[in-house]
Protein backbone atom coordinates (compact mmCIF):
# COMPACT_ATOMS: atom_id res chain seq x y z
CA UNK A 1 0.00 0.00 0.00
CA UNK A 2 1.26 3.49 -0.83
CA UNK A 3 2.18 5.45 2.34
CA UNK A 4 -0.18 8.33 3.08
CA UNK A 5 2.70 10.81 2.97
CA UNK A 6 3.46 9.78 -0.63
CA UNK A 7 -0.06 10.71 -1.71
CA UNK A 8 0.59 14.38 -0.93
CA UNK A 9 2.46 16.11 -3.77
CA UNK A 10 5.45 18.21 -2.83
CA UNK A 11 4.63 21.46 -4.60
CA UNK A 12 6.35 24.41 -2.88
CA UNK A 13 4.68 26.98 -5.14
CA UNK A 14 1.20 25.70 -4.24
CA UNK A 15 2.19 25.48 -0.58
CA UNK A 16 3.23 29.14 -0.57
CA UNK A 17 -0.01 30.10 -2.33
CA UNK A 18 -2.25 28.55 0.30
CA UNK A 19 -0.25 30.05 3.16
CA UNK A 20 -1.22 33.50 1.91
CA UNK A 21 -4.87 32.61 1.23
CA UNK A 22 -6.01 34.30 4.43
CA UNK A 23 -4.58 37.63 3.29
CA UNK A 24 -6.27 37.34 -0.09
CA UNK A 25 -9.63 36.56 1.51
CA UNK A 26 -9.29 39.56 3.81
CA UNK A 27 -8.47 41.81 0.85
CA UNK A 28 -11.53 40.58 -1.04
CA UNK A 29 -13.75 41.27 1.96
CA UNK A 30 -12.35 44.78 2.22
CA UNK A 31 -13.08 45.29 -1.48
CA UNK A 32 -16.68 44.21 -0.88
CA UNK A 33 -16.98 47.03 1.66
CA UNK A 34 -16.90 49.46 -1.29
CA UNK A 35 -20.36 48.16 -2.20
CA UNK A 36 -21.80 49.20 1.15
CA UNK A 37 -22.55 47.48 4.43
CA UNK A 38 -25.09 45.10 2.89
CA UNK A 39 -22.60 43.80 0.34
CA UNK A 40 -19.96 43.39 3.05
CA UNK A 41 -22.36 41.53 5.36
CA UNK A 42 -23.30 39.12 2.56
CA UNK A 43 -19.66 38.50 1.66
CA UNK A 44 -18.78 37.78 5.30
CA UNK A 45 -21.77 35.43 5.60
CA UNK A 46 -20.66 33.61 2.45
CA UNK A 47 -17.15 33.14 3.87
CA UNK A 48 -18.61 31.83 7.15
CA UNK A 49 -20.87 29.35 5.36
CA UNK A 50 -18.04 28.02 3.19
CA UNK A 51 -15.67 27.85 6.16
CA UNK A 52 -18.21 25.98 8.28
CA UNK A 53 -18.93 23.55 5.43
CA UNK A 54 -15.29 22.69 4.89
CA UNK A 55 -14.72 22.56 8.64
CA UNK A 56 -17.45 19.95 9.04
CA UNK A 57 -16.01 17.91 6.16
CA UNK A 58 -12.50 18.22 7.60
CA UNK A 59 -13.72 16.96 10.97
CA UNK A 60 -15.30 13.87 9.39
CA UNK A 61 -12.21 13.16 7.28
CA UNK A 62 -9.98 13.38 10.34
CA UNK A 63 -12.28 11.10 12.33
CA UNK A 64 -12.37 8.51 9.55
CA UNK A 65 -8.61 8.61 9.03
CA UNK A 66 -7.82 8.39 12.75
CA UNK A 67 -10.18 5.45 13.21
CA UNK A 68 -8.33 3.62 10.45
CA UNK A 69 -4.86 4.47 11.74
CA UNK A 70 -4.41 6.45 15.01
CA UNK A 71 -0.97 7.57 13.83
CA UNK A 72 -2.62 9.66 11.12
CA UNK A 73 -3.55 12.32 13.71
CA UNK A 74 0.11 12.90 14.57
CA UNK A 75 1.11 12.94 10.90
CA UNK A 76 -1.57 15.51 10.10
CA UNK A 77 -0.63 17.70 13.07
CA UNK A 78 3.00 17.68 11.92
CA UNK A 79 2.07 19.52 8.73
CA UNK A 80 1.96 23.18 9.73
CA UNK A 81 -0.39 24.22 6.92
CA UNK A 82 -2.94 21.53 7.76
CA UNK A 83 -2.44 22.14 11.47
CA UNK A 84 -3.28 25.82 11.00
CA UNK A 85 -6.61 24.87 9.43
CA UNK A 86 -7.31 22.41 12.22
CA UNK A 87 -6.70 25.19 14.74
CA UNK A 88 -9.17 27.47 12.94
CA UNK A 89 -11.87 24.84 13.23
CA UNK A 90 -10.95 23.68 16.73
CA UNK A 91 -10.00 20.24 15.42
CA UNK A 92 -6.31 20.02 16.33
CA UNK A 93 -5.71 16.55 17.83
CA UNK A 94 -3.19 17.78 20.39
CA UNK A 95 -4.05 19.74 23.55
CA UNK A 96 -2.76 23.27 23.94
CA UNK A 97 -0.12 22.17 26.47
CA UNK A 98 1.50 19.81 23.98
CA UNK A 99 1.30 22.31 21.14
CA UNK A 100 3.09 24.95 23.18
CA UNK A 101 5.70 22.48 24.43
CA UNK A 102 6.37 21.34 20.85
CA UNK A 103 6.63 24.96 19.69
CA UNK A 104 9.19 25.74 22.38
CA UNK A 105 11.17 22.64 21.47
CA UNK A 106 11.23 23.91 17.89
CA UNK A 107 12.85 27.24 18.81
CA UNK A 108 15.02 25.95 21.67
CA UNK A 109 18.07 25.45 19.39
CA UNK A 110 17.84 29.13 18.43
CA UNK A 111 17.54 30.17 22.07
CA UNK A 112 20.59 28.08 22.89
CA UNK A 113 22.58 29.81 20.15
CA UNK A 114 22.07 33.03 22.12
CA UNK A 115 23.00 31.44 25.43
CA UNK A 116 19.41 31.19 26.65
CA UNK A 117 16.67 28.68 27.33
CA UNK A 118 13.02 28.70 28.32
CA UNK A 119 10.98 26.47 30.61
CA UNK A 120 7.22 26.01 30.40
CA UNK A 121 5.71 26.51 33.86
CA UNK A 122 1.97 26.60 33.31
CA UNK A 123 -0.63 26.80 30.57
CA UNK A 124 -3.96 28.34 31.56
CA UNK A 125 -5.52 29.84 28.41
CA UNK A 126 -5.43 32.65 27.55
CA UNK A 127 -2.23 32.84 29.67
CA UNK A 128 1.00 30.86 29.47
CA UNK A 129 3.74 31.18 32.09
CA UNK A 130 7.40 30.73 31.13
CA UNK A 131 10.76 31.05 32.84
CA UNK A 132 13.81 32.31 31.00
CA UNK A 133 17.25 30.93 31.76
CA UNK A 134 20.75 31.74 30.59
CA UNK A 135 21.89 35.05 29.12
CA UNK A 136 18.31 36.17 28.44
CA UNK A 137 17.87 36.75 32.19
CA UNK A 138 20.42 39.54 32.32
CA UNK A 139 20.92 40.83 28.78
CA UNK A 140 18.12 43.26 27.81
CA UNK A 141 18.57 43.04 24.05
CA UNK A 142 18.89 39.26 24.19
CA UNK A 143 15.73 39.07 26.29
CA UNK A 144 13.80 41.08 23.69
CA UNK A 145 15.16 38.88 20.90
CA UNK A 146 14.20 35.66 22.62
CA UNK A 147 10.78 36.94 23.70
CA UNK A 148 9.93 37.79 20.09
CA UNK A 149 11.04 34.38 18.89
CA UNK A 150 9.01 32.62 21.59
CA UNK A 151 5.96 34.77 20.96
CA UNK A 152 5.98 33.91 17.26
CA UNK A 153 6.23 30.19 17.96
CA UNK A 154 3.51 30.18 20.61
CA UNK A 155 1.04 32.31 18.64
CA UNK A 156 1.38 30.02 15.62
CA UNK A 157 0.85 26.87 17.67
CA UNK A 158 -1.75 28.16 20.13
CA UNK A 159 -3.79 31.15 18.92
CA UNK A 160 -5.94 30.89 22.05
CA UNK A 161 -3.01 32.31 24.02
CA UNK A 162 -3.10 36.12 24.31
CA UNK A 163 -0.75 36.81 27.24
CA UNK A 164 2.74 35.50 27.97
CA UNK A 165 3.74 35.73 31.62
CA UNK A 166 7.54 35.66 31.72
CA UNK A 167 9.00 34.78 35.11
CA UNK A 168 12.66 35.43 35.83
CA UNK A 169 14.83 34.95 38.90
CA UNK A 170 14.12 38.60 39.61
CA UNK A 171 11.16 38.82 42.04
CA UNK A 172 9.74 41.59 39.85
CA UNK A 173 8.34 39.21 37.23
CA UNK A 174 6.60 40.97 34.38
CA UNK A 175 3.49 40.19 32.39
CA UNK A 176 3.90 40.78 28.67
CA UNK A 177 0.74 41.16 26.55
CA UNK A 178 1.38 39.31 23.32
CA UNK A 179 0.35 42.27 21.15
CA UNK A 180 2.87 44.59 22.83
CA UNK A 181 5.69 42.18 23.56
CA UNK A 182 8.28 44.52 22.05
CA UNK A 183 6.87 47.80 23.35
CA UNK A 184 10.23 48.52 24.94
CA UNK A 185 11.69 48.97 21.47
CA UNK A 186 9.65 52.16 21.14
CA UNK A 187 12.04 53.83 23.57
CA UNK A 188 14.89 53.75 21.06
CA UNK A 189 12.96 55.34 18.22
CA UNK A 190 11.92 52.24 16.33
CA UNK A 191 8.60 50.69 15.40
CA UNK A 192 7.48 47.21 16.41
CA UNK A 193 9.52 44.41 14.88
CA UNK A 194 7.92 42.35 12.15
CA UNK A 195 9.18 39.24 10.37
CA UNK A 196 10.85 40.08 7.07
CA UNK A 197 11.78 37.34 4.56
CA UNK A 198 15.49 37.37 3.68
CA UNK A 199 15.98 34.41 1.31
CA UNK A 200 19.62 35.34 0.56
CA UNK A 201 20.52 34.38 4.15
CA UNK A 202 20.47 30.78 3.01
CA UNK A 203 23.43 31.52 0.71
CA UNK A 204 25.82 32.22 3.61
CA UNK A 205 28.53 29.59 3.97
CA UNK A 206 30.01 28.48 7.33
CA UNK A 207 32.31 31.19 8.66
CA UNK A 208 31.01 33.81 6.22
CA UNK A 209 29.87 37.28 7.32
CA UNK A 210 27.43 39.32 5.24
CA UNK A 211 25.64 42.64 5.43
CA UNK A 212 21.93 43.02 4.70
CA UNK A 213 19.42 45.85 4.53
CA UNK A 214 16.18 44.66 6.11
CA UNK A 215 13.18 46.97 6.56
CA UNK A 216 15.53 49.93 6.25
CA UNK A 217 17.89 48.63 8.93
CA UNK A 218 21.50 47.56 8.45
CA UNK A 219 21.94 44.00 9.69
CA UNK A 220 25.02 41.81 9.92
CA UNK A 221 24.58 38.04 9.60
CA UNK A 222 27.00 35.14 9.83
CA UNK A 223 26.83 31.38 9.72
CA UNK A 224 28.37 29.24 12.46
CA UNK A 225 28.02 25.64 11.38
CA UNK A 226 24.38 25.17 10.42
CA UNK A 227 23.20 28.15 12.48
CA UNK A 228 22.61 31.63 11.04
CA UNK A 229 23.03 34.45 13.58
CA UNK A 230 22.20 38.11 12.96
CA UNK A 231 22.86 41.41 14.72
CA UNK A 232 22.33 45.10 14.13
CA UNK A 233 25.29 46.40 12.14
CA UNK A 234 27.39 48.61 14.40
CA UNK A 235 30.27 48.06 16.79
CA UNK A 236 29.26 48.98 20.37
CA UNK A 237 32.82 50.16 21.08
CA UNK A 238 33.69 52.37 18.11
CA UNK A 239 30.11 52.74 16.72
CA UNK A 240 31.35 52.12 13.16
CA UNK A 241 29.81 49.63 10.74
CA UNK A 242 31.15 46.08 10.55
CA UNK A 243 31.97 46.22 6.84
CA UNK A 244 35.05 44.05 6.42
CA UNK A 245 34.52 42.20 9.72
CA UNK A 246 35.87 38.67 10.08
CA UNK A 247 34.64 35.67 12.02
CA UNK A 248 37.08 33.45 13.90
CA UNK A 249 35.24 30.49 15.33
CA UNK A 250 32.36 32.18 17.13
CA UNK A 251 34.06 35.58 17.58
CA UNK A 252 33.22 38.51 15.31
CA UNK A 253 36.11 41.00 15.02
CA UNK A 254 35.50 44.69 14.34
CA UNK A 255 37.76 45.73 11.42
CA UNK A 256 38.25 49.19 12.91
CA UNK A 257 38.90 48.88 16.65
CA UNK A 258 39.63 45.14 16.84
CA UNK A 259 36.96 44.42 19.47
CA UNK A 260 35.63 40.87 19.52
CA UNK A 261 32.08 39.71 20.16
CA UNK A 262 30.79 36.19 20.74
CA UNK A 263 28.02 35.75 18.16
CA UNK A 264 26.81 32.50 19.71
CA UNK A 265 26.22 34.04 23.13
CA UNK A 266 24.06 37.07 22.34
CA UNK A 267 26.93 39.17 21.01
CA UNK A 268 28.67 39.60 24.36
CA UNK A 269 32.15 41.20 24.21
CA UNK A 270 35.06 38.79 24.54
CA UNK A 271 36.65 39.03 27.97
CA UNK A 272 34.01 41.37 29.40
CA UNK A 273 30.56 39.81 29.53
CA UNK A 274 29.17 42.91 31.27
CA UNK A 275 30.40 45.33 28.59
CA UNK A 276 28.49 46.76 25.62
CA UNK A 277 27.26 43.97 23.39
CA UNK A 278 25.76 43.54 19.95
CA UNK A 279 22.01 43.82 19.46
CA UNK A 280 20.69 40.42 18.33
CA UNK A 281 18.16 40.11 15.53
CA UNK A 282 16.00 36.94 15.54
CA UNK A 283 16.38 34.61 12.57
CA UNK A 284 13.91 31.80 11.92
CA UNK A 285 12.97 29.56 9.01
CA UNK A 286 9.37 30.60 8.27
CA UNK A 287 7.47 28.69 5.58
CA UNK A 288 10.79 27.40 4.30
CA UNK A 289 12.30 30.87 3.88
CA UNK A 290 14.82 32.50 6.28
CA UNK A 291 13.32 35.56 7.95
CA UNK A 292 14.52 38.26 10.33
CA UNK A 293 12.46 40.09 12.94
CA UNK A 294 13.51 43.69 12.46
CA UNK A 295 11.89 46.87 13.73
CA UNK A 296 11.55 49.37 10.89
CA UNK A 297 13.36 52.62 11.47
CA UNK A 298 11.14 55.63 11.99
CA UNK A 299 11.61 58.16 9.20
CA UNK A 300 13.16 61.39 10.38
From TrEMBL:
Keywords: 2Fe-2S, Iron, Iron-sulfur, Metal-binding
Gene3D superfamilies in the record: Fe-S cluster assembly (FSCA), Rieske [2Fe-2S] iron-sulphur domain
PROSITE patterns registered for this protein in UniProt: RIESKE
InterPro entries in the record: FSCA_dom_sf (IPR034904), NIF_FeS_clus_asmbl_NifU_C (IPR001075), Rieske_2Fe-2S (IPR017941), Rieske_2Fe-2S_sf (IPR036922)
Source organism superkingdom: Bacteria
Pfam families linked: NifU (PF01106)
UniProt keyword Iron-sulfur, yes or no: yes
Rieske domain sequence ranges: 196-292
Function in brief: May be involved in the formation or repair of [Fe-S] clusters present in iron-sulfur proteins.
Designated name of the protein: NifU family protein
Organism the protein comes from: Mycolicibacterium porcinum
Amino acid sequence: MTPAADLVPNLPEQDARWRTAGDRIENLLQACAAGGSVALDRAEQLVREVTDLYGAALARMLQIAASTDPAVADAVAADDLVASLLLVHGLHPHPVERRIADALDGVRPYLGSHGGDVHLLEVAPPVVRLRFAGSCKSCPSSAITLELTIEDAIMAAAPEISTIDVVTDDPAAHVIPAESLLARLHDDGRRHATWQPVPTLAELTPGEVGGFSVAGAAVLACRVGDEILAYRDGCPDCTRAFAGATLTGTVLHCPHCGSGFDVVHAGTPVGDAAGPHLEPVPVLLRDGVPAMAVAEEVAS
